[in-house]
């Protein structure tokens, strides 16, 4: 009956059928049909939306922990951190770290912490960094903990997250010396300068945009107060172009350049006017000199000896 229901329905309607089917299958058979149970879980996770993936992955990992292999369970948790929704990734990483610490020990969680810090957003990544550094302190790895604090400092604005810098200061007081505290203060100034530069640049750009626009949106386009900034800039540019076109000086009638508004008759009349500065070049003489004089020709009788025997007597 469950198999027929799964074949008939699609996601998300099939979620309840899969959830009930897998739960009852594990309760009845346990580890007796482990391969069959794994096959069912893989079928359920195929094309499963991220919204419903968390419950199935946790059920799958529980099966592997109780009846299967620990490395298979860790692989399922690893897949779950990538398959769930972004809002559930932080919770999934916490479960993954907790189960890995219980099964393999806390040293096995270092790689998980590193992947979580890379993937999660800044708010959750800061929490992961603090937990990671606290774990390293408990293991006696002070240098590792300090490097984690240094990495996390790039995500913490001193004006927004003063608690992080206070925790780092207390850490250096307990485990560091004067040089490490001085280095921590130097990093703090550098991070603060970086955030100040970004904020100042953004504010200057916004101020520049607001001062360049001489009119409001309602002034440029009445009745369109919801218009975005791009349309505002386009209308402003169009208005400036129209003003420049109106203020352009009109050309005079008698000033002629390569192109002019004068008619063809006016141009023909201007070409007929004599130019006092024109240089007189006598072209007729050159033409006469180039032509050869007539040569008189005389007619003479051809001697008969020239023709020889060809001419009749």
From TrEMBL:
Keywords: mRNA processing, mRNA splicing, Nucleus, Repeat
Domain Pre-mRNA-splicing factor Syf1/CRNKL1-like C-terminal HAT-repeats: 1-236
Gene3D superfamilies assigned: Tetratricopeptide repeat domain (1.25.40.10)
Acidic residues bias spans: 277-296
Family matches, as SUPFAM superfamilies: TPR-like (SSF48452)
GO cellular component: post-mRNA release spliceosomal complex; Prp19 complex; U2-type catalytic step 2 spliceosome
Domain of life of the organism encoding this protein: Eukaryota
Biological processes, Gene Ontology terms: generation of catalytic spliceosome for first transesterification step
Keyword Calcium in annotation: no
Subcellular location: Nucleus
Disordered: annotated span: 268-313
Membership in a protein family: Belongs to the crooked-neck family.
PANTHER family: PRE-MRNA SPLICING FACTOR, PRE-MRNA-SPLICING FACTOR SYF1
Name of the molecule in the record: Pre-mRNA-splicing factor Syf1/CRNKL1-like C-terminal HAT-repeats domain-containing protein
Organism the protein comes from: Scyliorhinus torazame
Organism ancestry: Eukaryota, Metazoa, Chordata, Craniata, Vertebrata
């Amino acid at each position: 009956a469950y198999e027929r229901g799964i074949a008939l329905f699609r996601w998300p309607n099939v979620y309840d059928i899969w959830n009930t089917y897998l739960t009852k299958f594990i309760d009845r058979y346990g580890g007796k049909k482990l391969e069959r149970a794994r096959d069912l879980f893989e079928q359920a996770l195929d094309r499963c939306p991220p919204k419903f993936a968390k419950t199935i992955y946790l059920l799958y990992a529980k099966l592997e922990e109780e009846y299967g292999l620990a490395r298979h369970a860790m692989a399922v948790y690893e897949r779950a951190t990538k398959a769930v929704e972004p809002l559930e990734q932080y919770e999934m990483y916490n479960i993954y770290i907790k189960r890995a610490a219980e099964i393999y020990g806390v040293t096995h969680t270092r790689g998980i912490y590193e992947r979580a810090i890379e993937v999660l957003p800044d708010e959750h990544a800061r929490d992961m960094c603090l937990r990671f550094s606290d774990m390293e302190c408990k293991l006696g790895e002070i240098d590792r903990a300090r490097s984690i604090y240094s990495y996390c400092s790039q995500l913490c604005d001193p004006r927004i997250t003063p608690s992080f810098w206070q925790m780092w200061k207390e850490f250096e007081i307990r485990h560091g010396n004067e040089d490490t505290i001085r280095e921590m203060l130097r990093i703090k100034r550098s991070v603060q300068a970086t955030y100040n530069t970004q904020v100042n640049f953004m504010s200057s750009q916004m101020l520049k945009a607001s001062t360049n626009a001489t009119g409001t949106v309602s002034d440029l386009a009445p009745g369109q107060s919801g218009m975005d900034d791009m349309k505002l800039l386009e209308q402003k540019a169009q208005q400036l172009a129209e003003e420049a076109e109106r203020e352009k000086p009109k050309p005079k009638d008698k000033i002629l350049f390569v192109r002019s508004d004068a008619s063809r008759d006016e141009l023909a009349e201007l070409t007929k006017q004599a130019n006092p500065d024109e240089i007189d070049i006598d072209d007729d003489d050159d033409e006469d000199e180039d032509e050869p004089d007539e040569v008189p020709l005389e007619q003479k009788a051809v001697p008969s000896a020239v023709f020889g025997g060809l001419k009749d007597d």
